[in-house]
Write a structure and sequence with these properties.
heterodimer, A: about 15% strand, B: alpha/beta, 6-stranded parallel β-sheet, 20 strands, globular
Chain lengths: ~550, ~550
């Protein structure tokens, strides 16, 4: 029996066991939206398409499954560009569908036409313009395959209206085979053997772990290696949660706002084992001062990242989980006792700290209290800037998939919709978005989405009334010439929350912080908490731009 | 004397008389923002980069000057894409600056790096990645020239951090050496085309002028009025052409196309000569192209040769500024009366006026637009969002002056109207600026209330709040058996309370009789106002050409 492209779309998603689609309708998608009425797939209507794609991304990060979003042609499609780039830089499996004008009108500058395939070429893992309904099912199958395998990433499928209206037999392929796309999962045995030798020979090894640990589900294997071989671990922002944050061998985050002891350890190590990390500039600082005494092992699923930013001595291309299993089977550690002692001294000498206050709320204190009250129950999303770094410092992530943050693109406004997506994926979890007043304003319209769909996300606004990270740089490097960073005219966030039917709370004194967090956790509704924090608090330690990572400003 | 790229940047803006820009800072733009700190340029900080670019766009449309906006690298830059595409489709002169990571980090997937040059190729008229500080000034001169000349459009300049910080010898004012296209006509050929056009007009018995945004961009409204009156040619405009011809004039037919007036569409279908001026035969105008002005000779007057013969074969064309062509044609054409044709059109106008039912107890959205028209005496700058609100605004707010109707026509961008209103008001502080919005569209850029309040930009927002995504809902009602999938906006906020939360004035109107006083009150206060008009959810935009139909075949409300 022949069915329409719109029905094929829905049936294909059902084949992929998709439960949630985040989207916003439009004229060219009207046929697909009609199909939702007779499908069990839940469509979550957002209030701006940027919300849809970030929600799909948060859904994917929290669940490990591909996130799906659906938006109309033209502005609908261009509104997801930031979200695609966000997912792309952080290797998140998202399948994004965009409506398109009928194939006969493509190229006419038709109403709401945009060349979204051209636009998104550099920010998707792959993209498609489906030109015939016969290709639709196969394309969707391929898209999910590409998005979720190898190094994951966003895939976009552009759906012209006539393709959705056309009819054909439905046949969903069981397998896909794509020429030129065969990700390699098994690490080369010889390379693994060499790595084992380097580990045994090393005196001062360190593991530098990234988001790849989480994407490949390798945190158990990483923990086993660390416990077995007693190698200290530092992590990138995206790698947080890959190893328990309170593990004694964990040094916290490295890089621009890493801990001083992680950065000193990296600078001094003689063996750097990078796993699922890509030597980003925020992690490495000045490259010639990054781990200058070390041999580098680089374990990564994506051969393109090998020796891209730094020359590595020993690459192992493959899946982190499988490779770590092999290493764990045979690892013979050296004696690193002296090394670990030295690191422990650094840890004692240069702890993370902030000036506590009884009069004014310190942002770090808010995060410590959220951690204390929410601990292992919560998924934390963040926006971008100072609060993001404070979360990385003061919230201990003990489980993978509990931190959702835009690391690569650094997208302000990511956190709140991502939290909505995570809450949809994990209805029984507590989901917090720790945000800034600048970031939250970028997507606050999604309060309507959270309220409509009963997604009881808690938003903690670290409200310092400015674009804090840029302000910090202006304070430190531009003589406090605060150009374009003052947000003195912000809305009343409590009133705003209430006008959406959410709960609004405010804390202005340190002794109110715990009470409002507990209050927020007690209600089964979306909550916005306006934490009025110290405005000129800075994120320390900090590596100035262009410096080596051991050259940190501590306060 | 040595100067940094950032200093050169600011100086070059000043050389282009830029006094206002819209933007949002970020790490890689620190050097430039530091220069802006003391510069005599008003920087309007938006709350999302999309707000900045739409505001720059609204500023450009309202003033005719290029709009300038700035966003940081990565997400800042990608947040501009919708605004670039919006400006590109509607030929709006914009110069957009994006920060970029240092040239040494390009291609490394650095923090907040995005290939905005590659991404924005399909949605800009031209774009640049500046790699040498020594090129910066010249590139900026080229960009302003390209954005504002010919068929205007957005131009993007990507500025790596080291290009901003590097010091070079102060560059001189460049002489542009851009390769010129054209001239389009060899000796005598232009004159031949003009003669051909004159002959076609001379022979026509039932001519129609079909006027688009190009007439406004080229400042052709006076020339258009002269030609129409001298040759007695009725004028229909596209959505973008609104304001190019006074809609209160006897020769005005209003808008044509999918939601045009019946009489405009009938006139186009029955005409024997269609003169397209600065218009591009968009599908929302033509319906099924093979049925559009069937039997008529078609003249296409446009600045962009790529538009001629793209959608529809034409009988004559002229590539030039609309104003210049129309003045020339007016000079050379003899007076005409077209009495029978004008009588026929008058009859159509009488038989098929725009109308809507006046219902008791529920506010008709059209009535709200009419009241805004009344209370502003037709003299406001109107911006719109996209959807039903846009079409009702186009149908019921009669424009008489160019640059007074600001709307996203080509891309159809929901969320455009409010930031565009902010830009328009900043560009034209003495004008009343009203954003006619829908509840769905307004939510998309609601965060810009902070921008309006902080900068005391006294725009008025009229939300035609029907609680649904009305245009899609209308299609679902008409073509999908009333199955309203995902078009009902459960969980809408209390817009009055939101306005108050931002320090703006919020007004709610639930009864028809309160509409006029609410509009008056909004106009009387010197602050941003959000009016939440609770309008009839079931009201549709009529008349309507079903998608793919012929434009004379219109649906109307079932009585």
């Amino acid at each position: 029996m022949k069915i329409s492209g719109s029905e094929i779309f829905i049936r294909s998603l059902e084949e992929e066991k998709v439960n949630h689609v985040f989207g916003f309708p439009g004229a060219v998608l009207i046929g697909i939206y009609d199909q939702f009425l007779s499908s069990g797939i839940q469509h979550i209507l957002v209030r701006h398409e940027q919300g849809a794609i970030h929600a799909a991304d948060g859904y994917a990060r929290a669940s490990g499954k591909a996130g799906v979003c659906l938006v109309t042609s033209g502005p609908g499609a261009t509104n997801i560009v930031t979200g695609l780039a966000t997912a792309f830089l952080d290797s998140i499996p998202v399948v994004a569908f965009t409506g398109q004008v009928p194939t006969t009108m493509i190229g006419n500058d038709a109403f709401q036409e945009v060349d979204i395939v051209g636009i998104t070429r550099s920010i998707t893992k792959h993209n498609y313009l489906v030109s015939h309904v016969k290709d639709l099912a196969k394309t969707i199958k391929e898209a999910f395959h590409i998005a979720t395998t190898g190094r994951p990433g966003p895939v976009l499928i552009d759906l012209p209206r006539d393709v959705l209206m056309g009819e054909t037999e439905f046949h969903y392929p069981a397998e896909v085979s794509i020429r030129g796309y065969k990700p390699n999962y098994i690490g080369h045995p010889k390379q693994i053997e060499s790595a084992l030798k380097l580990i045994t020979k090393a005196k001062r090894p360190i593991i530098y772990s990234g988001g790849g640990i989480i994407r490949s589900g390798a945190s158990g294997e990483l923990l086993e290696l660390v416990d077995k071989a007693k190698i200290p671990v530092t992590s990138t922002l995206l790698g947080l949660g890959g190893i328990p944050g309170d593990h004694p061998m964990f040094l916290g985050m490295l890089g621009m706002h890493g801990t001083k002891y992680a950065n000193l350890a990296v600078t001094d190590c003689d063996l750097l084992i990078a796993i699922g990390a890509r030597f980003d500039d925020r992690a490495t600082g000045r490259l010639d001062k990054f781990a200058p005494k070390a041999k580098y092992i680089h374990i990564d699923i994506d051969p393109a990242t090998i020796s891209k930013n730094v020359r590595v001595h020993l690459p192992i291309v493959g899946d982190a989980k499988l490779i770590l299993q092999k290493i764990n089977e045979a690892v013979v550690p050296g004696d690193y006792t002296a090394w670990i002692q030295r690191i422990e001294e650094w840890r004692k000498d240069f702890p993370l700290f902030y000036q506590k206050s009884d009069d004014i709320i310190k942002p770090q204190y808010v995060i410590e209290q959220i951690y204390d009250l929410a601990k292992d129950k919560a998924i934390i999303a963040t926006d971008v800037g100072q609060h993001q770094m404070w979360v990385a410092h003061y919230y201990k992530f003990n489980d993978r998939r509990t931190l959702l943050t835009s690391g690569g693109l650094g997208t302000m406004g990511y956190g709140f919709p991502a939290a909505i997506g995570a809450q949809a994926a994990c209805p029984d979890k507590l989901v917090f978005d720790i945000s800034g007043d600048g970031s939250f304003q970028m997507v606050l319209q999604e309060l309507a989405t959270a309220v409509q769909h009963n997604l009881p996300v808690k938003v903690a606004i670290i409200n310092n009334q400015c674009l804090g990270m840029v302000r910090q740089w202006q304070e430190l490097f531009m003589n406090k010439r605060y150009s374009g960073t003052c947000l003195k005219c912000a809305p009343d966030f409590v009133k705003l929350a209430e006008s959406y039917g959410a709960v609004g709370l405010r804390a202005e004194r340190p002794d109110e912080v715990r009470t409002v967090i507990a209050e927020a956790m007690a209600v089964d509704k979306p909550v916005v908490i306006d934490f009025r924090v110290a405005c000129e608090e800075n994120v320390f330690p900090m590596v100035p731009a262009g410096a080596g990572i051991e050259e940190m400003i501590l306060s | 004397m040595k100067k940094t790229g950032a200093k050169i940047f600011v100086e070059t803006l000043l050389e282009h008389k830029v006094d206002t820009m819209f933007g949002y800072p970020g790490g890689v733009l620190l050097p430039t923002y530091d220069e802006l700190f003391a510069a005599p340029i008003r920087h309007i900080l938006s709350r999302h980069e999309q707000g900045a670019i739409h505001a720059a766009d609204g500023y450009a449309r309202a003033t005719g000057k290029p709009g300038v906006c700035m966003a940081t690298s990565g997400p800042g830059a990608t947040n501009l894409i919708t605004g670039l595409a919006t400006a590109f489709m509607d030929s709006v002169p914009l110069v957009a600056f994006t920060g970029q990571v240092a040239t040494s980090l390009l291609g490394n997937d650095s923090f907040q790096e995005a290939d905005i040059y590659g991404i924005s190729i399909p949605v800009t008229k031209y774009n640049y990645l500046v790699k040498e500080t020594s090129r910066l000034k010249e590139v900026m001169y080229e960009a302003f020239h390209l954005a504002t000349s010919g068929r205007p459009g957005p131009v993007l300049i990507d500025l790596p951090k080291d290009v901003q910080t590097r010091q070079i010898d102060a560059p001189a004012i460049p002489t542009l050496t851009l390769p010129q296209r054209g001239p389009y006509y060899r000796d005598g050929e232009r004159e031949k085309q003009v003669e051909r056009i004159l002959a076609l007009i001379e022979q026509a018995e039932r001519p129609v002028l079909y006027v688009g945004g190009g007439a406004i961009i080229s400042g052709a409204h006076e020339a258009l009025l002269k030609l129409a009156e001298k040759a007695s040619i009725p004028v229909t405009t596209t959505l973008m052409g609104k304001g190019s011809f006074p809609e209160t004039h006897d020769l005005a037919l209003g808008m044509l196309g999918m939601h045009g007036t019946r009489y405009a569409n009938y006139a186009v279908s029955k005409c024997d000569l269609l003169i397209a001026v600065g218009a591009r035969f968009d599908d929302r105008v033509t319906g099924e192209p093979s049925t559009f002005a069937k039997g008529a000779k078609i003249i296409h007057l446009d600045i962009d040769p790529a538009e001629v013969g793209k959608i529809i074969q034409v009988d004559a064309s002229l590539i030039d500024q609309a104003r210049d062509i129309l003045l020339e044609l007016t000079d050379r054409i003899g007076p005409k009366s077209h009495t029978a044709w004008l009588r026929q059109i008058a009859q159509w106008k009488k038989d098929h006026p725009l109308s809507y039912p006046k219902k008791d107890g529920v506010i008709s959205p059209q009535y709200v637009v009419e009241q805004i028209y009344e209370k502003t005496k037709g003299d406001a700058i109107i911006t719109t969002e996209v959807g039903q609100n846009q079409m009702w605004a186009a149908q019921y707010y009669k424009c008489t002056k160019p640059r007074t109707f600001i709307t996203s026509g080509g891309l159809g961008t929901m969320g455009y109207g409010f930031p565009a209103a902010i830009g328009a008001k900043i560009g034209c502080p003495d004008r009343i600026v009203f954003d006619i919005a829908g509840d769905g569209s307004f939510q998309m850029n609601i965060q810009e209330l902070a921008t309006a309040v902080y900068n005391k930009v006294n725009v008025k927002i009229a939300i035609l709040n029907n609680g649904v995504l009305g245009m899609v809902r209308q299609w679902q009602e008409l073509f999908y058996g009333g199955r309203y999938s995902q078009t009902i906006l459960h969980g809408n906020p209390d817009f009055v309370k939101i306005a108050e939360g931002y320090g703006a004035l919020g007004i709610r109107v639930e009864k028809t009789e309160d509409v006029p006083s609410a509009v008056e009150r909004a106009l009387s206060v010197d602050q941003p106002v959000v009016i939440d008009f609770r309008v009839d959810t079931g009201e549709n935009v009529y008349p309507m050409v079903p998608p793919g139909g012929a434009i004379h075949d219109m649906l109307d409300r079932k009585e």
